[in-house]
Design a protein that fits this description.
The complex is a heterodimer of chains A (about 220) and B (about 140). Chain A is mainly beta. Chain A is built from four helices and twelve strands, in the order E-H-E-H-H-H-E-E-E-E-E-E-E-E-E-E. Chain A has one domain. Chain B has a single domain, classed as Beta Barrel (OB fold (Dihydrolipoamide Acetyltransferase, E2P)), CATH 2.40.50. The chains are: A mainly beta (about 220), B alpha+beta (about 140). At the A-B interface, strand 1, strand 8 and strand 9 of A face helix 2, helix 3 and strand 7 of B.
């Protein structure tokens, strides 16, 4: 099937890059100067108490203070997947399916799926159900896919006890390389309940042919 | 029933607290820049997401037997490097290098499993941020 826009369909595996040599740096350069870039993509993680320089609200500071890391090792939390504000950066591959009206992300991590509507619809009312993938609408701006996501359940934001709220608003800009073999993404987040200003993350993937996403089938018995 | 303002505040706080503990962090639970080594006999090996688990009995420096819980990074990542459910079997004697738990317990994340014949299985590589490429 032909596309007027870039063809993002395929299997994409995370690309590990050094901070100083990001292949999709142009997307980062488009961020507002005040955006705080969270550098924890892939296997990297921020330590306890490191919030990448973000200014947390007093309510978020209190929530972090109450967070008990021992709870993470319990069976009931073993398969508690993060939301799209964190699962896109996990070091797992994904499959992308694309039509004129939809882009679908099938993530290997926790078997999660995202559907992005390109048909011009709006987000549902704030009282509509929230989920880990949230509600996403998108549009093409030239060769860039811009996705706007709301309705995420509260969830992991930095995997160090700092969670986002159900009010998080995420905007994503996806762009592929001229040869189509690299995919870049910058996510920006606003969540005034837990931090001031705008935060962002950068991700990159490499296209591979002939591969597919494995089942994750999270097993809670790992926990204690 | 009337609802007083303080009850609304409490309700909002309760909703927010619904962000329960999530899948655990490596950085918070393990020491990323130090490796320790244990050698012993495998009691059990499971290979399911989110982490494979190797239960191992090893002797400490005083010769006392201790049981270790050693987790792997995700089996999905390791399958693409050649690991399977039967890569390690109960009864195998192995040397395991890994990242120690911050709380000092007999718990670690595996970097490498080595057999006496030299066969190696590599789990989480040291400092993943400097291992460039695709995973």
């Amino acid at each position: 099937m032909g596309h007027a826009q870039p063809d993002l369909e395929g299997f994409w595996t995370p690309r590990i890059e050094q901070t100083q040599a990001r292949s999709g740096q142009a997307l980062i350069d488009e961020l507002p100067d005040t955006a705080v870039l969270i550098d924890d993509t892939g296997a990297g993680e921020l330590a306890e108490g490191d919030f990448a320089g973000l200014e947390l609200t007093s309510a978020a500071i209190e929530e972090v203070r109450r967070y008990d890391f021992a709870d993470e090792l319990k069976s009931e939390n073993t398969c508690n997947a993060p939301t799209a504000a964190f699962f896109m950066q996990a070091p797992f591959p994904m499959e992308v399916y694309q039509s004129d009206e939809l882009v679908v992300f099938k993530m290997e991590y926790f078997d999660l799926v995202r559907v992005v509507h390109l048909d011009g619809r709006s987000h549902p009312p704030p009282t509509a159900p929230h989920s880990r993938s949230g509600h996403s609408v998108g549009r093409w701006e030239g060769g860039t896919l811009v996705v706007d996501t709301t309705h995420l359940t509260p969830g992991t934001f930095m995997n160090n006890g700092f969670n986002h709220s159900e009010a998080l608003h995420m905007v994503e800009r996806f762009r592929s390389s001229p040869d189509g073999n690299a995919l870049w993404l910058v996510q920006t987040y606003e969540d005034p309940r837990v931090f001031d200003g705008v935060a962002a993350r950068y991700m990159a993937w490499t296209r591979r042919s002939g591969e597919y996403v494995y089942p994750y089938d999270c097993d809670p018995s790992y926990g204690e | 029933m009337s609802v007083r303002p303080w009850q609304l505040v409490g309700f909002a706080a309760a909703l927010w607290a619904a962000a329960a503990a999530a899948h655990h962090s490596f950085a918070v639970h393990f020491v990323a820049d130090r490796l320790i080594t244990v050698r012993g006999e495998v009691d059990e090996f499971t290979f399911r997401n989110p982490h494979g688990v190797l239960m191992l009995t090893a002797k400490n420096d005083a010769g006392v037997e201790q049981q270790w819980k050693i987790e792997t990074n995700s089996p999905n990542i390791l399958r693409r490097r050649g690991w399977t459910e039967t890569s390690i079997r109960a009864g195998d004697v192995v040397k395991v290098e890994g990242y120690p738990a911050r709380d000092g317990s007999n718990f670690m994340r595996v970097y490498r499993v080595t057999y006496d014949d030299g066969r190696e299985l590599v789990g989480q590589r040291p400092d993943p941020s400097v291992v460039l490429g695709d995973d």
